[in-house]
C-alpha cells in the first residue's frame, strides 16, 4: 500500500490594527477587562452599521502581495450565517466569492505550495467556561482577521511546520501581526486526507482547536495514522468526498469527531448588504506593493550570494530586526570575508543580548575587521560586545586594556627565553613528547598578559628548543 498524505492549511492571522474591523473599538483584546472594548456594532445590536477598517484592508492586500497573490481590484464582503453564543450578530462578515487576494504561492525547499486565497474577515468573541457556566467576552468580537488558505500541496507534518514558520516570518516582516500561535493571534486548521495506491482518497478531515505548532504536527501525524488504519480495516475500495470536522485534544494527543458532512451551503452565504463593494485601483495596489520590505527569501538569496552558508543565511534572515542590523553593518560591502566576520559576531556574542539597531555602529565592526590579525578571535568577540554596551570605539578599549597581540618577534623571543628558563620540567617533558608544547605556550601567553600572538609564540618556542 502506498500512501501519500494530502495536507492543506487554513491559517488565521489577527491583524494588529488600532481599531476593530468594522467599528472604532480598540482591537487590543489581550489582558483587557472583559467586555470593555465593545460598542453596538461589535455587539451586533440591531440597527448598528459596520464601516470597514481601511488599514486592515490595505494590510490584507499587502500580505496577499507578499504571498505572491493576484489582487482583486473589486471585492465585497459576505455574511456567513451560523449560530454560536460568541457570535453576536448570528453571522460573521467574511469573503467567499471574491477575496482580496488569490492564487499565490510559497516556496519550501524548492517545492511550491500554492495559496488559494487570502481573505478578510472578523474574529468572534470568546466563550470562557467556568464550572457549569459559560461566560462571554466580546472584546475580540470584530477584530480583523486574514484567512490564508493553501491548496493541499503539503505532504508531511514537517513540511506543514516549515510552511507555518514561513507564513509567520512573512507576517512579522510586514509588521501586520505578531502572529503568536500560543497567544492565538495566529491559528491553524489543517485539512488531511490520504491518496492510497494512486487511486483512492480517504475522506477529508478538517482539524480544529490546534493551539501550538507542535500540536499541528501531532494532529497531522495522528490523522495520517488514523486514516491509514481506517482504510485498512474497511477493506473496501472507496472514494469519498465527504468532509468531517474533528477536534484536537492536546492532552490525549488525538483527534475526535465533531461534525460530519458540512459544506458552504450550510452557512447560507450572501453578500453583506450594509457594506458596498470595496475598490482598490491598480495604482493604489502598486502603492501598497511599494511598501513591501525585502522579504525573507530575498534576504536569504542575498546572503547566500555573499558566500554565507545556508545555516548562516537562514539565521540572519530569521527576523526583520536582526537582518536589518546585519544589512546596516554590512553597509553595501560585497566582501565575503567581511560578511562572514560580521555574521560570526552577530550570531555569536551579540545574539545573547537584545540589540537596538539605532545603537549599532558599523564602523566599530569595520575597525575590528581591519585589525583582526592583531586581535584573537576571543578578544574580538569580547570587544564588540563591550563596545556596543559602552558605546566606545573597540580599538580604544583594546588599546587601553593592552589587548593587541604582540607580533614583535624580538619581544616574544625574550619572553620565550624567560619561560624556558623558568620551566625546566616542562622543557624536559617537551623533549620526550613534542605535543606538550601547549603548556609552554600557555605560560608564555600568561607572562605576556594574553597579548602575544599564540602562533608566533609557539613557533619561537619550538625554534629555541630545537
Ligand atoms: Zn465595537
Summarize the amount of helix as a percent range.
25-40%
Which percent range describes the beta-strand content? 15-25%
> Which ligands occur here?
zinc ion
| Total domains | 3
As residue ranges, the low-confidence spans are none
Distance between the ends: 71 Å
- Count of DSSP E strands? 17
Largest sheet: 10 strands, mixed
Radius of gyration: 31 Å
Overall, the morphology is elongated
Average of the residue pLDDT scores:
92
Helix count? 15
Structural class determined from secondary elements: alpha+beta
Describe the model:
- By secondary structure, the chain is an alpha+beta fold.
- The chain folds into three domains: 285 residues, no CATH class; 107 residues, no CATH class; 57 residues, Arc Repressor Mutant, subunit A (Orthogonal Bundle).
- Strands 1, 2, 6, 7, 10, 11, 12, 13, 14 and 15 form a ten-stranded mixed sheet that branches. A three-stranded antiparallel sheet has the order 5-4-16, with no helix packed on it.
- The model has no long low-confidence stretch (mean pLDDT 92).
- The structure holds zinc ion.
- Zinc ion binds next to loops.
List the keywords.
3 domains; 17 strands; single chain; 466 residues; Arc Repressor Mutant, subunit A; alpha+beta; 10-stranded mixed β-sheet; binds zinc ion; elongated; 3-stranded antiparallel β-sheet
Summarize this, please?
The chain is of the alpha+beta class and 466 residues long. It is built from 15 helices and 17 strands. The structure holds zinc ion.
